Amino acid sequence: MPDARRNQMRATFCLTDALRRVYIALRYMASPVPDRELKKGSAELMILSLIEGRPRHGYEIGQLIELRSRGAVRFNVASLYPLLYRLEKRNWIRGRWIEKPGQRRRRYYRLTASGKKVLLKQRSGWREFVEAINLITGIQHS
């Protein structure tokens, strides 16, 4: 398996594992942090990560977030698309309308060079944050 693919799979696993631990921790906390607040802090990272490998359309991005988080994280259209537009305005992603026979027109988003730099920084920051939470709470990898 090529190193790039292995690193991508490792990053996807780390993100999925981190989301699972946050979900489990929040589920059993006495006063959980609202789901909305968690999404705000990690939404950009999730979206940039999902379009790193290939362009995806908005609905697919939302479905992948829900699928890979096993339903713990969901985005509705009213919050996902404005976020995609903001990321595009920041030049972190670029959207392109594509029409396929028998399908409606969809806007596919891809990561830009500056988006790749932001993704690296956000992954590093998220990794440090999760490690710090683990140190504080005593959560260990299984």
**Structural domain count:** 1
The fraction of residues assigned to DSSP E strands is: 5-15%
In total, the number of strands is 3
Assembly state of the chains shown: single chain
* Share of helix, binned: 55-70%
> What's the story with the biggest beta sheet?
3 strands, antiparallel
**Structural class based on helices, strands and sheet pairing:** mainly alpha
Morphology call: globular
For this structure, the CATH topology is: Arc Repressor Mutant, subunit A
| Uncertain ranges | 24-33
The number of helical segments is 5
Label the CATH architecture.
Orthogonal Bundle
Question: First CA to last CA: what distance?
Answer: 25 Å
Write the element-wise H/E pattern from the N-terminal end onward. Answer: HHEHHEEH
Return the average pLDDT rounded to an integer: 82
Any idea of the CATH class?
Mainly Alpha
Major β-sheet strand ordering? 1-3-2
What's the name of the CATH homologous superfamily? Answer: Winged helix-like DNA-binding domain superfamily/Winged helix DNA-binding domain
Backbone CA Rg:
16 Å
